User: Fold this.
Amino acid sequence: MNNLTVIEHQSQRVLLTSQLATGYETDVKNIQMNFSNHKQRFEEGKHYHRLTGEVLKRFLQVNDVGLQNQSKIRTLYLWTERGALRHAKILDTDKAWEVYEELEDIYFRVKQLKLSKELQAIFQLDHKQQQFETRLDNLENNTTIDFGQQRNLQVLAQKTVLRIIGGKETPVYRDKPIRSKVFSSLWRDYKDYMQVASYRDTLKIDYNRAVTYITNWRLNGKLLREIEECNSQMELVI
Assistant:
């Protein structure tokens, strides 16, 4: 990162997505995908700037960013120091952390040396805030869901199973062994997908992903045929 082209926006040093990808030894698509998957953890104006329209046009006119086909660019993301930190944490590779430390010590801090003591104090306070946020993120990453969230997952699982077997009025619902098999299949798939020993071990940071998985879970194969046969046989009897 020693030959990094300096880019500034709103009197602040920023990085292109391509610069982050090159420095962190990944590709642009991976940076874009990580941003999309964790968008709720990024705040515009704090972690990134999204340039479009006339703002983008003026920026490209005054900054030699080395991008090809600039006339075709419709949206450009610029990552702040905090944004670079977020991406380093998401990638969580030795190289990403190594490069981020270089960026923090050299690229983002060069301008600070020329500032007044008052402004330097502000930057130091901002840095402490980042450290505090990092500690909070680490705590969140290792905290499992609480009892209320566990209960919500149970309720969602019950609704999903009811949807699959056709409701409480179906023969399968009254057939407890088959119903139990469906629940067991759901939680077995869930544990494999979430990489946990029990749904209670789900991390809080993964709670929304857990809700989506259970809500969209589908049953396939032999057990699904068993349910269909059970319902059809009872209908014939009736």
